[in-house]
From TrEMBL:
Keyword Transcription regulation: yes
UniProt-listed Pfam families: HTH_11, WCX, WYL
Alphabetized InterPro entries for the sequence: CBASS_pafABC_assoc_protein, DeoR_HTH, HTH_11, PafC-like, Tscrpt_reg_HTH_DeoR_CS, WCX_dom, WH-like_DNA-bd_sf, WH_DNA-bd_sf
Native organism: Actinoallomurus oryzae
Protein name: YafY family protein
Length: 331
């Protein structure tokens, strides 16, 4: 009998259970059993194993037998002592707002997991120390780390969120079903379903005010790809004019020339790519693509092809022979 294999399987299942409990605020017993492929009785035994390791897991009453991972009086064993926990959270807060490529998303995911089990006595120390963390250079727009944590928790727990957001000259209250936080090279955005406008929207986190998470749970809708949706919103949909081009250069080459917040670059084979961008005027978008230095053609809008001819004639005229400029010293 392979007892070592059985123990290894149990350990992996218990760790999977812990990960599920960290993903959102509450699960029913049948939900966990279905995810783990075991019986509700096995779930109860695995919960007891986690409790023996120091994790505080609250069990709800009723047929479903709901479970929720709560903050502990002590950090769970094999993790961190108080000083290590504070240093880790402050470092994650810095990473979530920093400019290191890819670090912000991972730091925020880890931060929301630690938030589940961080003892209450450490929270005021974390807030005090996080205020001393700053960055310089090309980092993202500074935002309140508690706002990031609140929104990340709402995404994780699938609960509605509310916040004030500028609309023209006014600040209006928005009610949303938060889906994902997305980091660009400059800012954090929230992709959410706007309940008042009945559609998906992206919101700049640094423009939000009075951010709060509600207790009202929602069933997740079929959502667009978060990073793609936000990038397209930032690069084109917010502008009055959008244009698409087919550029005769590899996608990686063009991406290195254009900031992700300025255009969406899609691969179209090994030696070509599609560029989607927007601006206040079509002439500006056209000249921006021209200055990349690659051959290209206009895909849409059709009227931009006419502007190509107008600007080409203007450039040819500017480059033609001109009359000599009179020498003012001789006059």
């Amino acid at each position: 009998m392979d007892t070592a294999g059985d123990e290894r399987g149990t350990t992996e299942r218990v760790l999977t259970l812990l990960g599920l409990l960290q993903q959102r605020e509450g699960w029913t017993g049948p939900e966990l059993a279905d995810r783990l492929g075991v019986t509700p009785r096995t779930v109860r035994r695995d919960v007891e194993r986690l409790r023996m390791l120091g994790y505080r897991i609250h069990a709800g009453q009723g047929v479903g037998g709901g479970y929720r991972l709560g903050p502990g009086q002590d950090l769970p064993p094999l993790l961190l002592d108080d000083e290590e926990a504070i240093a880790t959270v402050v470092s994650l807060l810095a990473g979530a707002g920093g400019g290191v490529a890819g670090a912000g998303d991972a730091a925020l995911r880890a931060l929301t997991k630690l938030d589940q089990v961080l003892p209450a006595r450490l929270r005021h120390e974390v807030r005090a120390l996080s205020g001393s963390v700053e960055s310089f250079g090309g980092g993202r727009t500074p935002i309140d780390p508690e706002v990031l944590t609140t929104l990340a928790r709402a995404c994780r727990d699938e609960v509605e969120a509310g916040f004030g957001y500028p609309s023209g000259s006014q600040v209006r209250r928005r009610r949303v079903e938060p889906y994902r936080l997305v980091a660009s090279d400059r800012r954090w955005y929230l992709l959410a379903y706007d309940l008042d406008r009945d559609d998906w929207r992206s919101f700049r986190v640094d423009r939000m005010s009075d951010v709060s998470a509600r207790t009202w749970r929602f069933r997740p809708r079929a959502a667009p790809d978060a990073a793609t949706y936000v990038q397209e919103s930032v690069a084109s949909r917010v502008y009055p004019h959008q244009a698409r081009f087919l550029v005769q250069a590899p996608a990686d080459t063009v991406r290195a020339q254009i900031p992700a917040s300025a255009a969406v670059v899609r691969r179209r084979g090994d030696e070509r790519c599609e560029v989607l961008s927007g601006a206040g005027s079509l002439d500006f978008v056209l000249m921006h693509v021209l200055l990349l230095g690659h051959a290209f053609e206009v895909v849409e809008p059709p009227e931009l092809r006419g502007r190509c001819r107008v600007l080409a004639e203007r450039l040819l005229s500017a480059g033609a022979a001109v009359s000599p400029v009179p020498d003012l010293a001789e006059s």
